[in-house]
Amino acid sequence: MYVSCLKREEEMARLDGKVAIITGAARGIGRATAERFAQEGARMMLIDRDEAPLRALARELGAERARAHVADVSDPEQSVRYVAATVSTWGGLDILVANAGIGGPIMPLIQIPVAEFDRIISVNLRGVWLSLRAAIPVMRAGGGGSIVITASYLGLRGVQGGGAYVASKHAVTGLMKSAALEHARDNIRVNTVHPGIVETRMAKTMEAGFSRDDPEEGRRRLLRGVPMRRYGQAQEIANLITFVASDEASYCTGHCFSADGGQTAR
């Protein structure tokens, strides 16, 4: 009997019965998280501005697991609508993965155009705040939930040439801590996940930014800062997000979880 009970626990999906929103779901870490959540039994509303890959992913995962909702997370009305659509479709909301984010130019901070600075802050900070603002009342009414914000290792340290992006990721880390304190008694956990350099489109942009004429040199420069001497994979970050979102992390709130190959250990 003991063996059979263990087997049943091992077969039980971590997110059975959970309803999740994942923003920035069309590619990279968001897509990998959606795939992992589907394996773990979640039902999801997938959010992105990029309609074609978003709807393709929802079809791939199946209507019993995922629906697509095209939205700009930096727009307050659209944020309210995608949360309402989630409740209307699935009957509630248990998990928010605020993953949508953009990179920025590699240049001295005093040279960043105002419009570019505002664009980065609008998506990376305002977009996260708006998602929390729309989702938390629904979670509170439902008895609690788990919020995971995708930050960055650059939300824990600085880097030359990335001022706007670094500022946005430090800001969401502070936003997370305030939200965690404000809503601990509502049974809403709020945490950040801090990926290092991950094999995504953003990494390619960083490589070009650090060595415009020779992206391979840019890659070598980036890898010199990673003790493990490799980029992370999106699935590795999705694994961590899944743990933090799940009830296995039930006593974790207000915390920064890193998956960065040792970059912030220095």
Write the layout of secondary structure elements.
Elements: H1 2-11, E1 19-23, H2 28-39, E2 43-48, H3 51-61, E3 66-70, H4 76-90, E4 95-98, H5 114-141, E5 145-150, H6 163-183, E6 188-195, H7 201-210, H8 215-223, H9 234-245, E7 256-259
Parallel strand pairs: 1-2, 1-4, 2-3, 4-5, 5-6, 6-7
Tag the structure with descriptive keywords.
single chain; 266 residues; alpha/beta; seven-stranded parallel sheet; 9 helices; 48% helix; 14% strand; disordered N terminus
Task: Describe the protein.
- The chain is α/β, with parallel strands linked by helices.
- Helix content is 48%, strand content 14%.
- The protein has helices at residues 2-11, 28-39, 51-61, 76-90, 114-141, 163-183, 201-210, 215-223, 234-245; strands at 19-23, 43-48, 66-70, 95-98, 145-150, 188-195, 256-259.
- A 7-stranded parallel beta sheet has the order 3-2-1-4-5-6-7, with helices on both faces.
- Helix 6 (163-183) links the parallel strand 5 (145-150) and strand 6 (188-195).
- Helix 2 (28-39) crosses helix 9 (234-245) and helix 7 (201-210) crosses helix 8 (215-223).
- It is globular, with a radius of gyration of 18 Å.
- The model is unreliable at 1-10 (pLDDT under 50).
